[in-house]
Specification:
254 residues; mainly alpha; 3-stranded antiparallel β-sheet; 15 helices; 3 strands; 65% helix; globular
Length: 254
């Protein structure tokens, strides 16, 4: 540990959610990579963090096998819900989960019990914040959940429900935001990471109408929290165009 790499080491430990095995496996990689290089490669942490001690149990020799072992102990409802939570890029509420992740195999009426079980097992973290209870997946667990969501063939369907949920919710909330601005800003602060993820997905999938609808539902957020970011999103969608003159005009106005 040196003055020059201290910040990178701290960032690495945070990105690894403080998981002892993950940090140990990252330390093994410092034999051939700098800490900064390890950070750059964390997008594929399960491919990167392998090579634990041969004396360790097999499930402790790679990060993925350790998490896979814990995952296999879950009930089917828990496995289904935890993989669908991948679509939330940051914090989320019980209402978000019930709206996006519930289905015939995990009914909305069962979501609270299943989510509570995942919190008890430390697979989902509850965050202390004002207002409604909110939750988050650790970055490592979220990457694993994404792998499982793709393996289950559910990624496209769950992402579509997530996109529709945030577009419609933000559109409805825009109608009363100016009258309850403090409450509305607290909600958008909580949800903004997932909203950004939806905006990014709309651009990638060229769903310009949905993306522009979402971006134009947040003028008070852009004005009070992130003016230049709001301009960047609107410019990106306007550059492609959506074919809806009214929506296009609204975006131009903002």
């Amino acid at each position: 540990l040196t003055a020059s790499n201290r910040a990178a080491v701290v960032d690495l430990c945070r990105r690894l959610d403080g998981l002892p095995l993950a940090i140990e496996l990252a330390a093994v990689r410092t034999r051939v990579l700098s800490v900064e290089q390890i950070l750059d490669r964390l997008a594929d942490r399960f491919g990167l963090l392998t090579g634990g001690s041969r004396a360790a149990l097999p499930r402790h020799q790679t990060l993925r096998t350790t998490i896979e072992w814990s995952h296999d102990l879950l009930g089917s409802n828990e496995r289904t819900l935890v993989r669908r939570l991948y679509v939330f890029a940051g914090r989320f509420t019980l209402e978000d989960v019930e709206s996006v992740c519930a289905s015939d195999d995990v009914p909305a009426a069962r979501v609270l019990d299943v989510l509570s079980s995942l919190v008890d097992k430390s697979l989902v973290m509850r965050e202390d914040a004002p207002g409604p209870a909110c939750y988050r997946l650790h970055e490592t667990m979220r990457e694993f959940a994404g792998l499982k969501l793709r393996e289950a063939g559910e990624e496209e369907a769950v992402e579509r429900r997530c996109d529709e949920y945030y577009v419609s919710t933000c559109r409805r909330s825009a109608e009363w935001a100016r009258y309850r601005l403090v409450e509305w800003l607290a909600w958008t602060d909580l949800e903004i990471d997932s909203i950004r993820s939806v905006l990014r997905r709309c651009l990638i999938q060229v769903d310009i109408a949905s993306g522009m609808d979402l971006a134009t539902s947040l003028p008070l957020y852009w004005a009070t929290r992130a003016t230049t970011e709001g301009v960047r999103w609107l410019d990106a969608f306007l550059a492609i165009g959506c074919g809806d003159p009214a929506l296009q005009a609204r975006a131009e106005y903002l």
